[in-house]
Amino acid sequence: MSELLRRYGHTLTWTFVALTAFWLLVLVILPQLYLLEESFRLYLPLADIGGPRDVYTLANYRSAFEQPMEWKFWLPFASKPVILPIEAPIRVQVFVHTLLYSTVTTVITLVLCYPVAYYLAKVANPKNVPLLFVGLLVPMWVSEILRAFAWFIILAFKGPLNMALVNIGVIDSPIRWMTGFNSVTFGLVYVYLLFMLLPIYSAIQSLDTNQIEAAKDLGAPGWRTHWRVIIPHSKPGIASGCVMVFMLAAGSILVPTLLASTQSRWFTEIIQQAMFESQDWNTGSAYAFMLLVTCTVFVILAMRVFRVKLSDIAR
Amino acid sequence: MSAGVDLQNVSCDFGKFRAVDKANVSIKPGEFFSFLGPSGCGKTTILRMVSGFIDPSEGQIRIGGQDMNGIRPNKRPTALIFQNLALFPLMPVWENISFGLEVRGASKDVRRAKAEELLKLVDLHDSADKAISQLSGGQKQRVAIARALAVEPSVMLLDEPLSALDLKLRQHMRAELRAIQKRTKVTFIYITHDQGEALAMSDRVAVMSQGKIQQISTPQEIYNAPVNGFVASFVGENNIFKGKVTSIDSGRCSFETDVGAFTAALGPAVDASTIARLYVRPEYSRLQAAPAGGANSIPVTVTDISFEGNFIHVHAADRTGRHLTVETRNDGSVTLPAIGSAQYLCFDAATARVLADQGMKDPGIDE
Asked: Residue B290 has what pLDDT?
């Protein structure tokens, strides 16, 4: 603090502190607290607010576990759901699917991004890397809505992708891409790719190239060099990429709405319905907090399993 | 299990820049061979070509008689010790050392045992489970050597591995490296810009400049009989006089300079038509009150005396202002002249050499 004061003087320092505090308190913490409080109250007609029926209750949270029904479970890339022999509340079903396909999205982006990040960081001629990055970034200048919608057109049953594949003879008849969670996963992978690529790229880039050469010189084939030297070094980058993509995917509303099939409901859509279609902010915020808490717990558990420390990600 | 290394007309181009120009070396099995030269002379490029990280633009590299063309670094019988060591910081010491064995599919017990054995060889007991970050510079050095030895290479390649160490440790590690090489009988190829290291450790030294090998010889030969001006001035100190050969008589020549004529040994590739320089080492130069009969001598003025501990350097200037140095041992045998006094700098014809300017484009080493 004294360092900041010395460097920027009183006016500038306190202005920035005040702005940051305003952002954090007024724009982040207060709305959250408001919603948290609302989530424990019932959705009441205006006249009843403040009256005897306006009490703190867990009813909104409980409502997520109501309406049990047949569990249609969609496995990744399946064209038909599996009917599970148990009944489950509809919102729990949606929630499980959301977590599962956020995870699938994370795994696919990781598998796609690691080789690209490695190529950009260690293989590509450094002269070409800025150009390659521009190529990767240019699509991100277009809004997420438009990009998701573009995929809606591309993946349509009579869309350009099917047409191209049929015409070059890869497939005989058009494929219905937008079934189950396929198109949603596809869209999420596309939209959040860079959030995986960049942290892994910078992690691999910080690795001393001599380490890679040392491993090779000691006789290691490529895969072992990756497994023993490059991946352990870039683990913090991989972890923060995974956490970001997972959280963004689980919290995404645009892509699951635009690229939805008739079957793919995302938990954020349930929140959106509660808040904007039913105007029931109390239930909506209760569900939003359930999503937040469960995703956080899920990420912490995943970090435990893969032995990643929080300090690694913060780096 | 050591192998010889042959370089035949090996060149390496980076775009238009020729980093190594037609290198021809034959390194014997079990030899400690050094490439010595200033930075940018191509010595590291040679090392990287032998280890397989760069392909030569032309020429052939053979290790143990086998052509290495097209053989990847992980398939060559070489082990490289990097300048920054490149130890794996996320593995404990023993895993670092046994990484090469892990690659070859050895069981954990075998790897552990080998790591312990090598740690003893490099004099690092009880460090197997330490993290790399817990080690000192010298200990890291030893781990890097052990890691390279673990794969039982026929040829060890060392890229200035001592440059990051402090002076005391560096001198200690010199002896250590030499001892390890003698014990293991592996061919060592050592890259350095430090002439002291090269001379002290090597069986033979190749002095390089601007991509070309200037001289390959034993350390004694390199120092006592350099073949050209570059070698003479890169290895050791000299008093240098520019001039012209006036007459040649069976290995001796008369050399005309702006401060008088000298007699000196004639180096290779010098005749009356070439511009040449006379080199004489400070330790072969001496100061006297009167000119010496039969030896070369020129009048000088003492400008400074610097005390180096075991040596004393007396700096002097001749009448053209040329800076000359005389080195005497600090054993009390010589009375030091007063600063400012007029003296004669003398040297014997046999200790001075007239050499061609070849390989000397670096401005820093001109007279």
From this structure: 84
